[in-house]
Amino acid sequence: MQGLGYLAQDPAENVVPFVHHLGDARTPFLWITSRPVDTAPDGGDLLRVTTLRGGMATADPRRLQDLKTAATTFFDERGPGILVLDCLEPLILHAGVERALRFVEDLHEEVAMRSGILVVFADPRTVTPRMIAWLERELDPLPRSAMLPNAELRVVV
Questions:
Q1: What does the pLDDT read at residue 157?
Q2: pLDDT at site 135
Q3: How far apart are CA 63 and CA 4, in angstroms?
Q4: Is the distance from CB of 147 to CB of 8 less than 8 angstroms?
Q5: Which class for 152: exposed (0-12), middle (13-18), buried (19 or more C-beta within 10 A)?
Q6: 22 neighbors 152 (Cβ within 8 angstroms)
Q7: Number of neighbouring beta carbons within 10 Å of residue 38
Q8: Domains in the chain: boundaries
């Protein structure tokens, strides 16, 4: 639903099919990831989080304000859409747990004000139980049906 934030406690390999479903549905989305990908599926924008310099559409995980600015710019330019955050581990590593948590909270507020949707992927195998517990308090669980084929019919902006 618009204005909500969701937590997907899924293995990392489930993220790519999810964003492809969004692309197939022509749902505008911004995929913030640390994966070494060059482009997002059709219909989406990509922001790669990395400490390596260079390349278009990259952001430093220590500069959380830059990531937030990219998200607000996405909503300003594309209207309500879906913000997919798939890079908790590098954010925690480089910015610290407290700053990363505050960043997710700030994104959630931005999404709510702009009638968008936030989906945060957290792999329970790599994210600490403390972080998962905080995310569970802040975000609703992503419905299992959103990860199935034709998810775009259920995750609609």
A1: 40
A2: 94
A3: 25
A4: yes
A5: buried
A6: yes
A7: 9
A8: 26-153
Write the Ramachandran bin of 25: left for phi over 0, alpha for psi from -120 to 50, otherwise beta: alpha
Class of domain 26-153: alpha beta
The low-confidence residues of the chain, meaning pLDDT below 70, are 54-56, 147-157
What local confidence, expressed as pLDDT, does residue 54 receive? 66
Over residues 30-60, the pLDDT tens digits come to 999 998 887 888 889 999 999 887 666 888 9
Q: Give strand pairing partners of 118.
A: 5, 83
- In 3-state terms, what secondary structure has residue 8? strand
What pLDDT shows up at residue 37? 84
Distances (CA, A) of 134 to 14, 19, 148, 153: 22, 24, 26, 29
**Start-to-end C-alpha separation, the chain:** 7
Instruction: Tell me which long-range contacts 89-96 makes (C-beta under 8 A, separation of at least 24).
Output: 89/34, 89/126, 89/127, 90/34, 90/49, 90/50, 90/51, 90/61, 91/49, 91/61, 91/64, 92/127, 92/131, 93/61, 94/51, 94/60, 94/61, 94/62, 95/61, 95/62, 95/64
Please tell me the predicted confidence (pLDDT) of residue 118: 96
